[in-house]
Amino acid sequence: MTPTAIHPETPVLPVLTDEWARMEMLGGCLQDARQGRSVSDERLTELREKQEAILQLRSDARAWANLPVDGLSMLEMDILVCALLPEVQPRLAWMYQSLQPGLNHPHATLALVQAMLALDLADAAMLRGILLPDKPLRKRRLIEVEGSGPFQILKPARGVVARLLNVPDNEAPPGAVLVEQKAHWDDLILSADRKAIIREYLMWIHHEKVVVGEWAGQPVGGPVALFTGRSGTGKTFAALAIANELGWPLYRVDLGKLVSKYIGETEKNLNRLFDAAHGQPIILQFDEVDSIMGKRGDLREARDRYANMEVSHLLARIEQHRGPCILTTNLRDHLDTAFYRRFQAVVEFPQPDADARALLWNKLLPSRAPLGAEIDLDEIASAVSLTGGNIRNAALHAAYLAADDGTEIHLRHLALAVWRELTKSGKAIDTHDLGILASHLPKTTAF
Fold it and tell me: How far is 166 from 169, CA to CA, in rounded Å?
């Protein structure tokens, strides 16, 4: 999937004005016919001119550049425009409702499309074939079809209107949550070899059009990356840096909320997620995948067999998914090694060493916060082994302590903040674990 930056100034609607105007004219002609009024020669001439303009417009790839419409027939394009019209041009939604009395929605039905496009019996049969799940309009996730029979509903697939209009799609896929935090590549504290692997992962996204489209390389799903390492070592931060590089949003998926004890529900939840995200300029991050992709043992009961089916379904959907997926785990050893062939990149996020911790302290303390003259970040980094997440929390805690005192950030603030961070888990911690910070811990601190 080649990344496409969002440029709000792109004149998408003006370029496609003739498309919407033609549909409005066809709707008007249908209303006249139903009321026994004949269509004037002037209107027919105007309609023919509009249709000629549409033919020219559709031959210009730039007009529909934001959607995968290459190779669609004229009838398929007409159906797509019919489905898009009430959402792209809400003022025309009333027209659909007036043409479909008794229906409580503004979307096109199969019957309305057939009437508006004046399709004969042969064309109507072709129309039904075009709407099958394995045909381009649905296979490319351009439209959705609800119901059956002549009054089945045709809608734009999720995100299609936002992509056409070149505006952000703010609706999260089902089961996913937008990660609001921002991160930049330069803020990523990782060794050069691990940064190189992440850069290589980005190549799969940037150059798919060349490798698959021009060089006939074998298409694969995703691409999929596995990020492993302890909590707080920067897995989500790296995913955010990738999202920032692409200009795409990052959505975190909690597999625990998708997995259901009821047979078949997990697959349905996964289908809804991937159907909504397919082909969208977004990144999906699946946390704690070891919970569902652990090592497989003997099948002792029906639930074990079903759990394996859930994993197989998840992996199948990831392989079919058109868009990057990042899987994270704190427990790499718990993953079945058979899954590794499905990943385009595997990145281990280690506990940061003293040099990396010094860089993290320097970046994560508020940039304009005044520091006491006695503070040496290299010494602090060497004194206490913390993850990046721990350092972020401690740095902010120290800043708030200093703000409450109305002073610079001093060692006493950092000592107390680090102590609070170390004791969060409830494990037994000794003041000696603070190194040089121990002597600066306030005497009133609860131990």
Answer: 9
